[in-house]
Amino acid sequence: MSIESLVLRARHICEHNGARFTSIREKVFRLLASTQSGVGAYELLEQLKSTEPAAKPATIYRALDFLTEQGFIHKIESSNAFLLCHHFEHHHPAQLLICQGCGHVEELHSKVLQQEFESLATAKGFVIKQQTIEARGLCQHCVTPK
């Protein structure tokens, strides 16, 4: 899916939710849409400074908070990085395969895994508020000898 179509979908969702998709938020969204791996806040800040020289850490963190609240991005907790979600029409638990070789991150959607995890948590009296399951390893390209 093209970055432009992702931006149009995000704008539509923001309009529907009564949220402002400001130019800074859109620029950060576009930066995340242009990569298949997780990106840290300070790396995003440096990229953003190419078009917004006055951008500060607070600028990027406010944009990331907004994008997370709207369900547009997932946070990779283990590396404190962010990844654009291509299925942001609805909030959902994230299951991420993170390649330790090339950094590629693949998002999965397993209802079976989600239901089992929730069932195990409920049995322990735990209420899940946010779910991100991360698995680290090697992607198909990195594991296959060249």
Could you describe the 3D structure shown?
It is a single chain. The chain starts with a helix and ends with a helix. It is built from six helices and six strands, in the order H-H-E-H-H-E-E-E-E-H-E-H. The protein has two domains: 3-84, Orthogonal Bundle (Arc Repressor Mutant, subunit A); 94-143, 2-Layer Sandwich (Dna Ligase, domain 1), CATH 3.30.1490.190. Helix 2 packs across helix 4 (57-69) and helix 3 packs across helix 4. By secondary structure, the protein is of the alpha+beta class. The strands form two sheets. It has a three-stranded antiparallel beta sheet with strand order 1-3-2. A three-stranded mixed beta sheet has the order 5-4-6, with no helix packed on it. A hairpin with a 5-residue loop joins strand 4 and strand 5. Zn(2+) binds at residues 99, 102, 139, 142. This is Ferric uptake regulation protein. GO terms for molecular function: DNA-binding transcription factor activity; transcription cis-regulatory region binding; zinc ion binding.
Total beta strand runs: 6
The helix count comes to 6
CATH superfamily of the largest domain: Winged helix-like DNA-binding domain superfamily/Winged helix DNA-binding domain
Strand arrangement, major sheet: 1-3-2
- Oligomeric description of these chains: single chain
| Backbone shape | globular
Decide which structural class fits the backbone. Answer: alpha+beta
Residues in β-strands, percent: 15-25%
- Helical fraction equals 40-55%
Query: In whole angstroms, how far apart are the ends?
Result: 28 Å
Mean pLDDT: 92
The CATH topology of the largest domain is: Arc Repressor Mutant, subunit A
Rg over alpha carbons: 16 Å
Q: How would a textbook summarize the main sheet?
A: 3 strands, antiparallel
Cofactor: Zn(2+)
Subcellular location: Cytoplasm
Subunit structure: Homodimer.
GO cellular component, one term: cytosol
